[in-house]
Amino acid sequence: MARRFDSRTHCRLIALSAAILFAGPLCAQGLVFRPGGPPLPPQRPANLAQKSTPTPIAPPAPATPAPKAVATADDDFTPVALPAAPRARMHECGLEWQKLKNSGAAATMLWRDFATACLTR
Questions:
Q1: The pLDDT of residue 5
Q2: What are phi and psi of 19, to 5 degrees?
Q3: Which residues in the chain show pLDDT less than 50?
Q4: What one-character DSSP code corresponds to residue 105?
Q5: According to the model, what pLDDT value does residue 28 have?
Q6: pTM for the whole thing?
């Protein structure tokens, strides 16, 4: 069954259709709406058609290794490889070093110098 509208509803539908069709562009929050479609996209910049040459990207500079510090005998912070010795000998040298420190005889001596001499004995 077809739905019938009375004359009042029919007139309202015609008035609404005419308002939509003939109202022209509507502005809402800066967007332009045209009847019968979605809002238009924003306008393109004027200089978009010009081709720009890409700027060449320079390759990264090769990494240079940092200069190594030269170890000197007077440097207190340079790691020194002690002579190879069994664990028991290292323990004996450690106890002897503790006795020297407690007596005050090792005030001007460094552990690495003492250990080198003690482990080679």
A1: 63
A2: -65, -40
A3: 25, 27-29
A4: T
A5: 46
A6: 0.37
Q: What is the per-residue pLDDT for 94?
A: 94
pLDDT number for residue 54: 72
- Structure-token match 């420190």, residue found: 101
Encoding tokens for residue 32?
Answer: 């332009």
Residue with structure tokens 């709406």? 33
Identify the residue whose tokens are 């010009």.
50
Task: Tally Cβ neighbours within 10 Å of residue 120.
Answer: 9
Token pair for 27: 């502005």
Residue 97: closest CA among 88, 105, 108, 87: 105
Q: Where are the domains of the chain?
A: 1-39, 87-120
C-beta separation of 77 from 69 below 8 A: no
- DSSP output for 14-83: HHHHHHHHHS--EEETTEEE-TTSPPPPPPPPGGGGS--PPPPPPPPPPPPPPPPPPP-TT-TTS--PPP
At 73 the pLDDT is: 56
Tracing tokens 């005050």 back to the chain, one arrives at 104
